[in-house]
Fold:
Amino acid sequence: MSITHLPVRKKIALELFRRYRKNESRIHQLNYILWECTLRCNLHCLHCGSDCKKDAAVKDMPAEDFLRAIDELKGLVNPNKTMIVFTGGEALVRKDLEQVGLALYQRGFPWGLVTNGMLLDAQRLQSLLRAGLRSATVSLDGLEASHNWMRGATQSYQKALNAIKLLAQTANIRYDVVTCANQKNFDELPQIKEMLIAAGVREWRIFTVFPIGRAVVHEALQLPPQQFKAVFDFISQTREEGRIKLNYGCEGYLGDYEGKVRDNFFICRAGINIASILVDGSISACPNLRANFIQGNIYNDNFSDVWKNRYAVYRNRKWTKTGDCASCKSYKYCEGNGMHLRDEQTGELLFCHLKRMEEAEKAAV
Structure:
């Protein structure tokens, strides 16, 4: 059966979800903020969308500037229901995360971080927890050789695994492991699953690489159609087993796989519920979205005003109905895929999940 052929019950569910998505866009309640606190990084990952380096040309944003922008949201958001996540670069290269985290905690905001695990040892974790750390995400991109290849460092696998095991033994923190599926680790996914289960990990996410940043020039990061589709079969089967909670990332509409590979139907929440502050002060949605998708800058604009009065390109997606999307029967459920999968200069779609899986179906005939 074709990936685009939907059972009647799923069509009804997707129609109801489409109405929900429109309402979410209309209300656009901000409840998730990402802070790109640095572009410095202690690794050199092949798929980095920000092209981070050990010594970044753009300096770290001063903590007081970020906190001032957050304070501008007073009256717009409920701090207790608004998650703030530190990202980078590698967030833990900053020595003042605890001070920033504590300041957020005192304002009522839960906060978390995304890390490669290189600097997350027991001492630093306890320090972060005392400052109010609520969640963490650690990247694990294969077994040892595959992970180290992708991350560009021989110790990166062991450091990431140590960080994962440390979090698994820690109470009062929500954490997950995220894996970038690629040609190098595709056959390792079942082994990774068993390893994570054995370590006590309860939540795992898989995503696929989209062609931006360094990922454009590394062909091994891109799954060929049949492997691409097989990833969703693996996720679906793992979810049916119920031994670990596995979700696919929020990257795109998946046709009949919707409802099978993640907890919710596809919705791109960029600019709908999610904002980000980039290291240079730019106000965006996901940190991957730059160039023409930037909506302002905290050094020139009020963060609250920007959220309320801009972001039209995110909330009215009619402009995405071009190219392949113009005649696509699934457009009403997809609205042009995730924003980060569109060219930041032209707006044209760079990658379509349905198209890749339809290629797999044709090849299998």
Notes: The chain has a mean pLDDT of 93.
